Amino acid sequence: MIENPILAVEDLSLWYGKARALHGITMRIPEKKITAFIGPSGCGKSTLLRCFNRMNELVDGVRTQGTILFEGASIHDPNLDVNALRSRIGMVFQKSNPFPKSIYENVAFGCRIQGINRKRDLDPIVERSLRAAALWDEAKDRLHESALGLSGGQQQRLCIARAIAVEPEVILLDEPCSALDPIATAKVEELMLDLKSRYTLVIVTHNMQQATRVSDYTAFLYLGTMVEYEETQKLFINPAKKQTEDYITGRFG
């Protein structure tokens, strides 16, 4: 049992129009750990991830039912500032999406939105964030060059630096390595393991080996239902459900 979870989900269901994408999901996500969502394409992994910072609300016709608590408070509280929620629960997407600005301005972007504009305030934040994303040594001499000149792996680490510049508590990563080569993937995985001492990470991955390498807990989803959620080693070595065993041994999916 996970005590004092940073995120708690209770009987969560979600519909895109009339199509039901999530069916009664209940789970507790521990603080300063890495939790992975695995399962075949279209099983609801990314949909569930995007519930945590209410990104699904940007899609027309979406409705949810159930409860999500972040540090004990409902994220659907009508008085909640959604932009503030999204700065506390940051997001890194499948395809790296740096803005067509300099490396420096990409990292500073969220801080500027929060009203931090002075160079003397931004400089240490940019350096701290790039160091935390293991990108400072590669980028420090080209901070004012376009971020689009970075390699794919560097761009993804820049997007992580951009997410952590505003000091979130949770970082959501939606298949962050799917477009990367093995060397860049290894760097991002190493970075995730380093970041979990300071942040809670939730990752969607189609790569089961990646889940075993980086995550502390793993949830297996299938057709919008949570089949099993357990400590990663236990889920992969001794799954409680036959459906989980069939998926991780490659019998289906």
Based on the model shown, name its key terms.
253 residues, alpha/beta, Rossmann fold, 10 helices
Brief summary of the model shown:
The protein has helices at 45-51, 82-88, 103-113, 119-132, 136-139, 152-164, 182-195, 208-214, 232-237, 242-248, and strands spanning 7-16, 19-29, 34-38, 62-70, 73-74, 89-92, 170-174, 200-204, 217-222, 225-231. With 253 residues, it is of the alpha/beta class. Helix 4 crosses helix 6 and helix 6 (152-164) packs parallel to helix 7.
User: Radius of gyration, rounded?
Assistant: 18 Å
Biggest beta-sheet profile? 6 strands, mixed
Q: Can you give the helix content as a percent range?
A: 25-40%
- Secondary structure: number of strands: 10
From the spread of the alpha carbons, the general shape counts as globular
How do the strands line up in the largest sheet? Answer: 6-7-8-3-9-10
Which strand-content bin applies to the residues?
25-35%
Separate helix tally: 10
CATH superfamily of the domain at 7-99 and 169-248: P-loop containing nucleotide triphosphate hydrolases
- CATH fold naming of the domain at 7-99 and 169-248: Rossmann fold
Query: From the 3D coordinates, which CATH architecture of the domain at 7-99 and 169-248 would you assign?
Result: 3-Layer(aba) Sandwich
CATH class of the domain at 7-99 and 169-248: Alpha Beta
Overall average pLDDT: 94
The poorly predicted ranges are none
